[in-house]
Amino acid sequence: MKSKPYIKLSFFVCFLFFVWFMPCSLEGAGSSDIHVWEMQEITLKAEKHHDNYYKEIECWVDLEGPDFSRRVYAFWDGNNVFRVRIVATVPGKWTYLSGSNQKDDKGLNNQTGGFNAVAWTEGEKKENPNRRGFIRSTSNGHALQYADGTPFFLVGDTWLAGSTWRLPFRGVAATENYIPGPGIGFEDAVAYRKQQRFNSVSMIACFPNWESDYNPSTYADKKGIYLRNAWEKFDYYTEEGKLTAKNMRDEYGNLSFQMLSEHKGVADFDRINPDYFKSLDKKMKHLSDEGFVPLLETVRRDNCPSWKAYFDFNESYARYVQYLISRYGAYNIIFSGIHLDWIPKEYSLTALEFNRALTYHFRKYGTLPFGQPHTTLINNSTYTQFGHGEDCPWLTMHSVGNKPRDHRVSDSMEILFNLEPAYPAINFEPYYTGWDHEINMPNGERPAANSARDNYFSRAQMYGSVLSGGLSGHVHGTSAYDITTTGEPEGMRHYFWDALRFNSASYMQHLSAFILSEGSKYQELELCHGSVHPRKAAGSPEKGLDGWAYMMCTKEKDFALLYFETQSVLPKLSGFKENASYNFQWFNPRNGEWMKNIVVKSDEKGFLKLPFFPDGGNTSSTDWAAKIRE
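The structure corresponding to this sequence follows.
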């Protein structure tokens, strides 16, 4: 039977509607249903040619779903291609509509689509905890949890140059029970740390002005503008006999930005190179697939004096910040707006200048669209440098780090914990094992790399930082943060594969087990150092890491966690219920073993007298942790 003309016409009209209104593609979905928290990609193609797609075009989709309505920005991916990466945060029907600042470009505007999101099963969530949803602060503001309420305690490592060729992505799975050695790849390092129960690594996205060239690692141009204060490439000297900088290209030799012709050695911060970030894409996806929640940082502060000198800094920097958020904001991440490890006058902008740029970004683009924390790695304290609340509206997670790396960091952590409203807090740069540097010498002491004393200092910073209010977790570090790798002389910092095997890393899983031993109960902990008598052993130095005791407890005093540094004096604890019985257990932070439970009783004034340290006596010859439960 022949088709009737109106049927043919109706089919043709429907076909034209589909072609006209649905030319953008939703990639990553194998069927009409997709999983929640699983990154999907929408492709948009500009119809008109532009000289600088990165600078001239802003495009986006307005994403709508159950109790969700946000604008999600696209990133330029080369040629005329823009991509929008999204996730569905809850099951149900989701739709999107594209738009841009190019009102007459049909390839970027009025593109629509939709999908149905379904939940993961509990079994699938156990295979990858990122399926529980992106991390956010707990209701009291002091800790982190997945979107489904499962506690997230960050167990991180420091791979600042892990975004570059120094830790190459090979596309090959690590061998079973891999042991780090020369030729290590990205997948190898992730597998090794995953065996040790790490769930995060810290990386700087790119190092634009860094190159192994004819210039020193730290140098200024003819105008006196410093272009970099880079890590040295050992045994590679300039004509003047100074060490040059580490090369920070990707595995294929790509730079992160084009370079300016009129200012030699300066990146053209208005012309990004998408090919570099395509290499980083593979690493970010691999971390997500392995259940990691990386700290992704924008750039190191030493690239920014030239950025401000030769560009409209607030606008250009905000564009770059948004590029990273657009490219990686559909992964479970913690975002760091600047790697501000040090604020020297010559090699950095001020904290105020960075705060202005990040506030400018916030006013223009808003928060991360899917709710992940925005913080910075910092010199001393984010509160000291930026303030709190409306002082820095972009910041949703506080940190301490780098200076100091001793007892004084506890004071900074306690200040952060007591802020109102409360934000999660963490120590991003504590004591680094194996690193021979003046800021990494508690009380002036520099033990041998990977010695018992060296590893103890790392352990003391772990427990001391967390039990001073850093309930978000902790980030471990070593002398190999810069990733000296295959084909380079070792120099003053260890090869990456050697430092990965330092004993200090093995203690991180014990820290996590200790904190999570009562499930999410640790999230209710409050500072209780005033209930420890004495808290500090006589003569214990403020600039050291010996002799101090730490305690956090719940408001009801029905749960407490304690840590005692080496040379601590056994204290009495106050503020507990009168004439009550409590369960007390020692914990060995070196091997993660719990001692036998001991019942202790408070006196008529609510004081608890603790049993002797496991190594005997009232003064500890090594460090110990403990737990108290009613």
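Residues 5-21 form the longest helix (17 residues).
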